[in-house]
Amino acid sequence: EADIYQTPRYLVIGTGKKITLECSQTMGHDKMYWYQQDPGMELHLIHYSYGVNSTEKGDLSSESTVSRIRTEHFPLTLESARPSHTSQYLCASNRLAGYNEQFFGPGTRLTVL
Amino acid sequence: TQLLEQSPQFLSIQEGENLTVYCNSSSVFSSLQWYRQEPGEGPVLLVTVVTGGEVKKLKRLTFQFGDARKDSSLHITAAQPGDTGLYLCAGRNSGNTPLVFGKGTRLSVIA
Fold first, then answer.
1. Does B58 touch chain A (CB under 8 A)?
2. Of B32, B9, B24, B22, nearest to B76 (Cα)?
3. pLDDT tens-digit series, residues A15-74
4. Which of A41, A50, A105 sits opposite B96 (nearest CB)?
5. How many CA atoms lie within 13 A of A112 on its CB side?
6. What confidence score (pLDDT) does residue A98 get?
């Protein structure tokens, strides 16, 4: 069973607010990812990290930023939320070695009014 | 950009029927994974296949990796309502590259 956590699970906020979505994993995984997904639709990779102090942008352009100060923690920040940011945000992690099976958190459902 | 094409995009069947979903690419993958996602949750890994021609079984689910490692299929025998969900295939080309995900097959099994 994967030990990867996301908070909050649901968030409804107004336009212009700054928000941080939290993601933590207790598996000691080096690689972590953030995906954006509209309900029932495909996953879009927005950020990933190979380890502490490493961050990369994914395939989907995003106005969010990430940081990786600790191995277990990979928060995503939106400086000024807009209605177009309304979506589900999924965090995932995997080890550097092996077949890189990816473990996902439960997601944060964000609604920006 | 590597692409994984999944088909069908949507599938609605009656309980007890068999079904197959496909994941195809023009690229070779070193490994391929299948995930299932239920509404409001994150995807959960079902299986990883790594060898061309490999077949893996998970209860009523049978996964196959193509001989050339460019495609894969998922066959479900005697589908049940609990099989309902979004099925995603994902492939990795080499070591440290991020997974490439297909767009998914949305399966609905009606009792």
1. no
2. B22
3. 999 999 999 999 999 999 999 999 888 899 999 999 999 999 998 877 899 999 999 999
4. A50
5. 16
6. 67
What is residue B81's DSSP assignment? G
Would you tell me how many other CB atoms lie within 10 Å of the CB of residue B81? Answer: 10
Residues of A in contact with B94 (CB under 8 A): none
CA closest to A45 among chain B residues: B98
**Phi then psi for B83, rounded to 5 degrees?**
-85, -10
Whether residues B42 and A105 touch (CB distance < 8 A) is answered with: yes
Q: Per the structure block, which two tokens stand in for B1? A: 């950009």
Q: How many C-alpha atoms does B56 have within 13 Å on its Cβ side?
A: 14
User: Could you tell me which residues are beta bridge partners of residue A25?
Assistant: A4
Q: What is the mean pLDDT of chain A?
A: 92
Q: A68-105 pLDDT, tens per residue?
A: 999 999 999 999 999 999 999 999 998 877 667 889 99
Contact A99 B50 (CB under 8 A): yes
Q: What is the pLDDT of residues B10-66, one digit of tens each?
A: 999 999 999 999 999 999 998 899 999 998 899 999 999 999 999 999 999 999 999
